[in-house]
Design brief:
The complex is a heterodimer of chains A (40) and B (548). Chain A has 40 residues and is mainly alpha-helical. Helices cover 65% and strands 0% of the residues of chain A. Chain A has one helix and no strands. In chain B, 74% of the residues lie in helices and 0% in strands. The chains are: A mainly alpha (40), B mainly alpha (548). Chains A and B meet through helix 1 of A and helix 11, helix 14 and helix 23 of B.
Chain lengths: 40, 548
Amino acid sequence: MTPEALIMMILALVIVWGGLVASLVHLKAHPDEGGTDDII
Amino acid sequence: MSNKSLQREVFPTRMAFILAAVGSAIGLGNIWRFPYVAFESGGGAFLIPYLIALLTAGIPILFFDYVLGHRSRSSAPMSFRVISKKFEPLGWFQTGVATVIAIYYAVIIGWALSYTMFSVTEAWGDDAGTFFEATYLHAGELSLGSAFSFVPGVLIPLIIVWVVVLGILFLGVQGGIARFSKIFIPVLVVLFLALVIRSLFLPGAVDGLNALFTPDFAALADPQVWVAAYGQIFFSLSIGFGIMITYAAYLRRRTNLTGSGLVVAFSNSSFEILAGVGVFAALGFMAHSAGTGVEDVAAGGVGLAFVGFPTLISQMPGGALFGVLFFLSLVFAGLSSLISIIQVPIQAVAEKLGISNRASLGIVGGGMAVVSLLSMPTATGLTVLDVVDAFANNIGIVGGALLSIILVVWAKRATPLLRDHLNAISSFRIGTVWTVCLAVITPIVLGFMLISQIIAFITEGYTGTSADAIGWIVLAVLAVAAAVFTFIPWPKASLDFTARAVEANDADTKKYPELYTPARMTGHDDTPGAAGTTDPQAAERRTEGDNR
């Protein structure tokens, strides 16, 4: 691949997949609260 | 009324909801639309407007849809009704758009099912284009005679699709939608990963990736490139036509809405990028085999899937397996989106008529299946699909979404209330940036897209033939149907359920005084101590636009 295409492909993968990993880590760190009145 | 009688199905876990929402978002457009749009719109440089569109429009509208559905725990029409009674027709319009889309979307999955079988023998022979239109679809001119000329080869897979989809929905949210998503979304990812890896090892794959990712930064000065980026994000995320409102209604009372939304949005984009790599690596191979440039073979949509891919499958060693992987991916991506689209009218009609979801499934789902089976597997099916798709997406979805922001955000000024609800139960806090994206950036882009599209349809037409009338008629019918459905009175059980849901959710919001801002909505009455009241009159007021 040409260097500029390679850089853009790596950037795209790192940013978008990185965003997915970061959002999954964030979600795992914040489990939902439960409760008896959980369901209306 | 006891709380038990007001219970509805919920997604069993947060991850079940996320998988169902991801399944809804990942559809045919991720596979056949994104790669070509990116290639046409600046290649690697497209990443910049694409990410900006994701952050400034895609994710903000996703949160907006979630909070509308979750606060009311109800369908799209009721979710808009609790903001203001006058907004109910908008909910029905969005529900109608979903209904129309489901009717034609099913037939594309039927085609993919047929082509999964065709791949085994490469049934299309040397000319995949002629095979698709003439041999398989029997596609003909729009005429009354050909409108009733059924094509068995399309009818049978379409029947299978409807039986499978209605069967999944019959099993309900937990037993059907959640279970299906839990199994088939991971299967889809594995299938597609296998396909991408195979593509990357084909001769010429590097040329395809160069064509897709080589940046053309000069393209960023073209406003159409930015519109293409916002359009891709918008159509890809299943936002703006009731799906995410409906799915969010099945969430537990305290669910991390924004945290889940971020996972859904980034999953959708991650799959799109993966699809871009796989599709363009394969197109690179196709160009290599034909001795042409990638730009000569690049295509999107139906042409890419049912003409381009069959052609390259025939040229490829082990093409049969590759074909099965590709078309099965289309089938699974399509099915998980289709069940979410059909659930929109099923839930809305169930609430409006006070009937069970299964009864609604029989009436609405069955009716949609009949219309789909009568109109799509015919010689004119391809033309009808093409026209209805263009109008339903570019005017129906975009117009409905724009109207929802104008009414809810501008006219009713409900953003503070919705923001506080999101923040009270979610880990990813939102504030001014979300409000600005939702109230300013998104309507500007959607307004530009809608107006320019309407002008284009009026001045140039879409097909340039009388077939365009079908698109306008469908939109007119949806507008009339929205008004008619609004006039049907709601049953007391539905009103009670929604009133209790809004009351409970708003009480939750007020438990967080550091987050709660008295909503400055038109006509808002923030009486101290009102939270948690079970006064039936107060509950009724909440479904009539008095949103505490």
